[in-house]
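Suppose you are handed only these lines of text.
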Amino acid sequence: MTQLQKILIASALSLCSAVMYAQTSRCNSMHHLRQHIAKDPTLANRMIQNEAVTQAYIQNAKHQKASGVKNIITIPTVVHVIWNDPVENVSDDQIFSQMLVLNEDFRLLNSDSLDSQHPFWSSTVDSEIEFCLASQDPDGNPTNGITRTQTSVVVWDDNIQDDIKYSANGGKDNWDPTRYLNIYVVNLGGTTLGFAQFPDELSSNPNGDGVVIRYEAFGTEGTAGTGSFGANNLGRTGTHEVGHWLNLRHIWGDTICGDDLVSDTEPAEDANYNCPTFPYNDNNTCGSGPDGEMYMNYMDYTDDNCMSMFTAGQALRMQATLNGARSGLLTSNGCQVPSKSNTLKSSPQFSIFPNPSQSGMFSLEWESSSISARVIVEDLTGRSIGKAQALESGVNVLNLSYLSSGAYLLRIESVQGSSSHKIFIQ
Ligand SMILES: [Zn+2]
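From them, the structure of the protein bound to zinc ion can be written out as follows.
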């Protein structure tokens, strides 16, 4: 049986099981996919066609992947906070904490990764994907990458969750999904932690694209882990749902001994919960090896402090998506500071990179030799840190390695005015 036939059968089986019993699930991604397939039966066929393209990319990439050269892709991200009760209006710092987790987990910078003696360490990879909070909105205006919307909707239950992406229905219209990752923070009904729309639907349902995360399972501070969500306090719901958004399936393939369309994840009988002990369910009925199931994979259902890895096969699948259905992100300017600043009057051009920076070293390229300017580092309250540095034309090096991890502001002052730009140190 081919991969494509398997996915078709898995989708059909999942549809049946959804009808037979409503399972309490931490993730609603497959629930919504099944509903959308029921409404639009052509979606299943498109998924099969897309999967053929994905597998072709993966086969080709496997041959080419010997150089060892990293090709980092940065995804412009906007976080839409939709709140009814003020507690749901999560802080900027909580949003930064989620961005940090995404950047750590997708780049294998998470401090809880498996140790090098672990049998699954050899499958663990840096997926070479990063995220920035957008500096430029779809209209080219400066932004901090965060929108806030007060709503009359108290709880987003299953049957109205599609409305989260529509301003007219109490939610918030997504930003151009071919150029941005849209992350929504809301009060989801029941125990659902989040859900994402798969890339297969980007062309047919662009307005529905994005990732949704409940406010108690978002980031690592503030409301993260509150209430009955203590095990979801490390931002891994975001990692899991962005994995779906980049076309990853659950590790157990959403049916007993199902296929997740990735060759290097051990076959799993079903979803795993809490935090099993290694090796778990070794030599299982679906043919796992003596090391058992990969319950520490981000695409399982285990606790946040139990999951810590993507595999090479999963990373390739995500990269196939970024070079396929979501290739618009590769040329998106969402991470770039707009060239025409609203506050600097005659638009001297500059860019700041890398952002985020892991070392605390930034390059600030200042393209206007005729305008004297200086840059000041500030904390998020606008308090200056250290001395101002004069900007010279060309590349200026900013050594901020003495600062601890977090978000800061770079304020650029010239005779024409000033503007502030957010930077991140990891
Ligand atoms: Zn999921």
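What can we learn from it? Residues 27, 29, 240, 244, 250 surround zinc ion (CB under 6 Å). The chain has a mean pLDDT of 89.
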